[in-house]
Amino acid sequence: MRSNTLTSPALNQMSKTKIFLISSLAILVLTSGVILGKIFFSGKSPDNNVRLVSNTERQDNQKISESRQTAITRAVSKVSPCIVGINVEEVREIQDPFANFWGNDPFFRQFFGDRGQQGPQKQIVRGLGSGYIISSDGYILTNDHVAGNATKISVTLTTGETVSAKLIGSDPNTDVALIKIDKGNLPYLPLGNSDDVIIGEWVIALGNPFGLFEINDQPTVTVGVVSATKMKVAADNRRAYKDMIQTDASINSGNSGGPLVNVDGEVIGMNTIIYTGGNGASGSIGVGFAISINRVRKIMEELKSSGKIERNFNVGFNIQGIDERIAKYYNLDDTKGVIVNQVAKGGAADDAGLKTEDVIIQANGEPIRNEQDILAVVNDLRVGETLKLKVLRSKSEKEIEIKLTAEKK
């Protein structure tokens, strides 16, 4: 009986412990249910959290896409519709290099005929280049060496349409030509101010290199910086390449006549010539030159009004460069300048008082270091203007003014 009285309290204690555990488990289950219910039914679900992350990524992607739009891409989008590809045909006289030999030798004459009596043969030569629209009524600028001697000109627009063009005027000395197509409401490029060009600023060259414009009716775009300004470039004795903009934007064959634009989409130059490095190479090596647009604008306005620039004059003297031998012979301090080796009797220079052995050191305010310098000055003049020379004569400086008059035909 004693053992039974001792067991009853222990049993009661065990019963209480079980009740406590069951109650705690029930509370835990109820609490978990409440928490899970809030998660699944309160609108703050894991799915929504995933969706929020997705929206954030989408916004970030959009920002990245927007960041790809730069001043350069915006300028290209603005400028591209105004660029044209130009194809030309030109009739040239080709002289048979063996005509005299074949024509005078009885043996070859029996096989090839009397070719020496045929004279130059006419041949159609095709070429291509670039241009850009400068007015809504169809005026287009390009190079003289692209379209100046063309007998047929066709222009391809970025719409894919090809139309005939006519030559309004051309100036071989500055290598500028103005053509026109018979269309209206055209997009056109604004002309900038090349005097404001900054060395090192971004520039864009657009055009038709190697005829690639014809593939998809879109200009090829290359980007670089302005490498130098106010450059004189020796190309030939016919053209006056002065006030040129140098750029490392890639320019190749067929780019001639296309625009060089700044990041505002304004034309600052006309792509014209490149250095290729020689050895038969013809591609860009990163040294290209564009005629400054202020110079082009002046020529274009004259061509539009009169169709040509009157340069039919003769200065009436010949020159040669000065090397160390000539400098020593004439007792000159250095080799800068050019020496007059002939003056036409009764010509403009003779009338102005220029004499042989005069050393020209300045022309129209520009220093003369070599033959190219004075050719650049003279080739840029017009009938009616004055060539002002500063010369050394017997160690003394003299100023001579030559009035340029039209040659009699």
What this model shows, in words?
It is a single chain. The protein is an alpha+beta fold and 409 residues long. It is 31% helix and 30% strand. It has eleven helices and 18 strands. The protein has helices spanning 2-41, 46-67, 71-79, 99-104, 106-112, 144-147, 213-216, 293-306, 324-329, 348-352, 371-378; strands spanning 83-94, 121-133, 139-142, 152-156, 162-171, 176-181, 202-207, 220-231, 244-247, 259-262, 267-274, 288-292, 317-321, 338-343, 359-363, 366-367, 386-393, 396-403. Strand 2 and strand 3 (139-142) form a beta hairpin. The chain is elongated and about 140 Å long. Residues 1-7 have low confidence and may be disordered.
Summarize this entry quickly:
By secondary structure, the protein is α+β, with helices and mostly antiparallel strands. It folds into four domains: 2-66; 78-181, Trypsin-like serine proteases (Thrombin, subunit H, Beta Barrel); 194-306, Beta Barrel (Thrombin, subunit H); 317-403, PDZ domain (Pdz3 Domain, Roll), CATH 2.30.42. The chain has eleven helices and 18 strands.
